[in-house]
Design brief:
By secondary structure, the chain is an alpha/beta fold. The protein is 40% helix and 18% strand. It is built from 18 helices and 20 strands. The strands form 4 sheets. It has a 6-stranded mixed sheet with strand order 1-8-2-5-4-3. A hairpin with an 8-residue loop joins strand 3 and strand 4. Helix 1 runs antiparallel to helix 2 (43-52), helix 6 (179-193) crosses helix 7 (197-207) and helix 10 (253-268) packs parallel to helix 15 (383-391). It is globular.
Length: 561
Amino acid sequence: MAKLKKIDRTRAQESRNSIEKLYISMRHLFSRGFYKPMGVSGETLRKSLLLLRPEIYGSIAEDKIELNGLIYVIDRLPRGIEECQFISLTTDEGYKNSHFETIIPPKRRRNCYRIDKDQMNIEITRGRSEIYDILTHLTFLFIESHKIQKRVTVSDGCDFIREWKYLEDIVIHHKEISEEEREIAIAHLSNILGRTFDEVLNIHKAFSTKDNQDRFFQLIYWLGKLAINEVLENKKRKITFSSVLIEEIGHHIYGDIWAHNIKKSLKEHKLLKRPIHIISANMHSVLNSIYAHNALPKEAETNKGFELYQLLSNSDSKPLQKAVKEYASENGLIYIKDTSGTNINVQIIDTDKINFEKSPFEKINSVKENPVIIVMDYAFGEQAYETMDELLKPYKNSKKKNHLDVKSISIMGKAGILEGGKGDIMIPSSHIFEGTADNYPFKNELSKEDLEGFGVQVFDGSMISVLGTSLQNKDLLKFFHDSTWNVIGLEMEGAHYQKAIQSASKIRGNISEDVKVRYAYYASDNPLETGATLASGGLGMTGVTPTYAITQKILEQILTV
């Protein structure tokens, strides 16, 4: 009998297996209620992440410290977390009513509270995806901290290298240092981190703030210090999940409150029976596209096409942005600031109160019954299902159910692209949910041809909804792109939105079966290109053209129905 040839696993297969292990492990640890990230309980997480070697975490599997990944992670975690031995993940448990300062990370809308010098509480109100996101970032951070520990301890932990002592002296004594002393410290840090002087100098500038020029010194010191305490003094870092969080997760508690507030506002403004179009997007592109030309006639005269939106996207244009918002609030815009905990703000736009003259839509034929547009800010991962599922349910009052007359649902967002570059556009024909056989084909009302002619490349095909954008690597993404799945990009919400839309329209009868769907994404990064991942920085002005091109096409289709 002929022997079967042993087939070695490819890197893509290993990567898929690592992601599966990561998520099984995280769900187990969550159910358990606590774990020690650098102990036995966190071993599977660490090993899986090191085997996976996600692009966003760069050189995580090497001895040198990963700097770009560090910026990416620190921007998404609360200020001061590197000093905390204990991290507690909670739900909304009333900390906002206490004396604790609310700390919101720059790149993630979540409330965090420094309980004391050793403990940080992070509030989870956006579902499991948020937990996965935090745990992978913390695992990366702790792995990097132990690299620092290994590089600075000598004589089996009885002593430390002189560069570390120099850094400790600056941080512990809060020393005011001269520019020359700063450069000496950076030179010492380059040795600690295994990086060049130039690399450390640039990263020091990136972390520098107006209030704290040497934040990078403090960050590296405390990361290393807590790892040293863990190894030499057995002071283990610990992550806990509150019992209330464990009980509430997955029950749509925040999504239900959020959706009820929107429907209540529709009823109060007598808009509940009107045709409704839902758009998941940012809080500026629909607003500016509809109102900016009439709100800023002088600026619109001198800034043609998308130049007006570039002007409004400038950080120095706060007075102009305020003028647009004030004009909009007097002409059909209702703004609902989130109080539910979902961190998803909402705009309701009554098109019956809009003067479309001099706007990009002045030539569009007005419809008999002008629709209502609901613009919801970006959801996060699985939160997309929770919020959309609740929003599409009928509004209940004491007398009867009021079904919403939802005519269309449009999803616009940022995504990683697998062909092309930053600012290019992706038009999906289906969503594939990573790690499962679940797939959601649909008829997209937007086509590739609709978005051509704006000076950016447009691609169509399948999109993969990943369990976490920070967990992807080139081998896995190359497999998705080159195989018959024909994947053009990756994001975190599409499959969850479509699951909610399909169940509401085709099974539960909450909305019409004929509801139209539109999906379009613009590329925030290309994880297959070295130096083009999310860790390389934001889109800046590159994102203006694709954002407003997609918005314009969505609004054209809504207003010509």
